[in-house]
Amino acid sequence: MKYWFPIFSRGKLLILILVIQTTFTYTQENFVKNLDDHYLYWGSYHKTPISDIQNPKWVPKETVIEGWDWLLPESVKPSKLSNLCIARNFGLDNRKIEQLPEVNFKTNPVISHWVKWRELEPIEGEINFEPLIENIKNASEKGYGSIIRIHFSATDFAPEWVKKYNIPIRKEQKENSQKRNYEVSHPEFHERYLKFVKALGESGIPKMKEVKGLFLGYASPSNGDEGIGPYPEGNVNANDTIQHVRERIDAWANACKGVEQKVFMGGMANYGFNKGFGIRRGFVEMYLYHIPDEHIGQEIDANGYLIVEESNNIINKNLFHGEENEEYEEKWATTERGFRFGINTEPYPYRYFTANLRLLQMRCNYLLNNEFSLLPEMLSWVSLELGKTIEDAPDAWCFLRESYLKGNKARPVKNFERWVYQRDYPGYETKPVAKIDHPIKMWMVQPDMYYDYVARKGNKIGFDVDDNFLSANRKFAVKISYMDVGHGNWSLVFQGEKRLEERKLKSENSGKIKTATLFITADFKNKTLPFDLEIHGEGDFEPTISFLRVIKV
Q1: What domains appear along the chain, each with residue ranges and CATH number?
Q2: What is the pLDDT of residues 220-235, one digit of tens each?
Q3: Fewer CB near the terminus (10 Å): N or C of the chain?
């Protein structure tokens, strides 16, 4: 079960409503019919186990390679605020923990313990946290931190003894709900819930150094106690006014006093944010959702560019900020799972790629992934990006793309950006190119526009780097991923230490994605060009650029 739920500032940097989704059932009309491309830029569907992934070795020289390039200098380490969840343990059994894969790339791996209330308090008043504490310690011995996710609300989550209190069943919004939930606002349920949360705090679990996060949810028609209150996600302030919701949040704040930053909610509540709690969504596989969403700092400017409001509290305070990018097994392309993402796995690497960039664009610091990766080098890069801020990020980047959101007329949404900004300007006009059809009709996309463009083309393309990213750095690596289409020469142009400089490149019409790496010493503060970094085509040639990354070296 998942919840569906920018202010461009010129600067510098280095290269709703709640919808509760249970199971999609797609008919043939849900699928885009003209799937002409074969997602060739992302390769075929192949699962690499976590234990086989390593950080690729940094290459300190100028190159042009086929494919994408996710290299970072070997000195880069993961943020202390980041966590990569690559396993879930259901219940109190220890076998899953014993089988945790060895992690050989730089990351902060965690396992999420999904435990039911009934497993910890089978007899009223007799709560036993010892099996959970033992599992937390066993996971730590394997090199994993722990996320604690205790489920309360469903009739099969709560203990059998709860039935004697004759608590009514919550009326769900969906007819064919997976779960039947108790009415959690009922005084008998609420009183015992608060007692349990108090006992959790007294157990010492929240303050264990091995524990990296604790989930605070509500009730939902699908598995997971999703949400934070009875109102839909769009009514953030409405949930804040509900007495029992505030008391639940207060109980968690008291239980986790001193480590409130570990708590993350299953829905939006300003009352919880003010306690220092974070948020976990969970459907970034649908990478265009939450656009716009002021609650997480996602806005669209007047020209259609997706921008981040960096002053948003979740981002500015680097609160626990999570996403899930984990529905990539073959089963998701079957009748049993309603062909949730299409009739085969062919588009999965592209969707995995795009969702990873989106969650980083949203400034997430927590990611639930599979126990495998479709793009292993990219996942090792993502792990080093999670939780990084403009002050400590090793790189900044711009994915030049365009999609069309549903509205009275199609609303373009341009680019996923992380402190590098591409903007059109007189003489620097671009057009979206490299069309990729969606395998399904995503609900937020304008009808009959079920496609993305994944590059921009222009004779001149301008990029600015956020000033706050640059700091005192002057030496950078710039990695430019481009579609090698057409024959022509083009250059990266920038203000060097003493004069304008250019680095020449060539398109040879191979039809492949290529990445050029250039090392530059730039003076972005005293530039004589409209933009910090510019791509110029020679003559009337228009290079096709997909991804530009600036790296501090």
Answers
A1: 79-397 (3.20.20)
A2: 998 999 999 998 876 7
A3: C
